[in-house]
Amino acid sequence: MPRAPRKQRRSREPQPVQQQPTRIQRPFRDDQSNVSPASFAKRLAAMVYDGLIVVSIWIGVGIVATLLNQGGVDTPMGRAAVQSATFCCVFLFFGYFWTKSGQTLGMQAWRLRVQTFDGQRISWTQALIRYLTAIVSWIPLGLGYLWMLFGDEHLTWHDRWSESCIVSLPRGDNKSDKR
After folding, report:
1. pLDDT value, residue 27
2. Over the stretch 49-79, which tens digit does the pLDDT of each residue have?
3. Residue 42 class from Cβ within 10 Å (0-12 exposed, 13-18 middle, 19+ buried)?
4. Which of 30, 80, 99, 146 is the most exposed, having the fewest neighbouring CB atoms within 10 Å of its CB?
5. 129: in domain
6. Domain that includes residue 136, residue range
7. What's the pLDDT score for residue 57?
8. What is the pLDDT of residue 179?
9. Number of domains composing the chain
10. Do the beta carbons of residue 80 and residue 120 sit within 8 Å?
11. Which of 163, 174, 155, 162 is nearest to 101 (CA)?
12. What pLDDT does 171 receive?
């Protein structure tokens, strides 16, 4: 009767430490020397534009939820599910545009772009942090947004927490990544 193969002993030699993968560099193709910190007024105008899109997302999710539930969402669990779906859809809107081109539709209209401090596209993790902490910035009567008026760096709370910033692009360059 054949014997089962013996288990190999683990060597006690130290294994080489694998290096952590470096963050993928995703630079914008334009010249970074012409960008400047975005003004509060431009940010506010872009937020109004994007706010209209967010309202349309809310309406769309509400219509889909109503159709799926044959006329209404009556239970607390159903309302929580619709609110969660709305929250996720709005994040996907912002996250997609911020990570792809650095600009939502409102930001494109006002020539604004979100980027890392060194001029790179933000990651999905940074987009999530930015999205969640932007909500926190609104809670104390918008103090997180107004904070940029008092600092030398013109950064809001969510800019600092997500390690990103909003910059104003020069005229003639309203697309951040020309293809």
Report:
1. 72
2. 999 999 999 999 999 999 988 877 788 898 9
3. middle
4. 80
5. yes
6. 34-168
7. 97
8. 43
9. 1
10. no
11. 174
12. 85
Q: Would residue 17 count as lying in a domain?
A: no
Question: Which distant-in-sequence residues (6+ apart) come within 8 Å of 146 by Cβ?
Answer: 40
Beta bridge partners of 165: 115
To the question of pTM greater than 0.85 for the whole model, the response is: no
Residues 6+ apart with CB under 8 A from 41: none
Residues of the chain with pLDDT under 70: 1-25, 29-32, 173-179
177 part of a folded domain: no
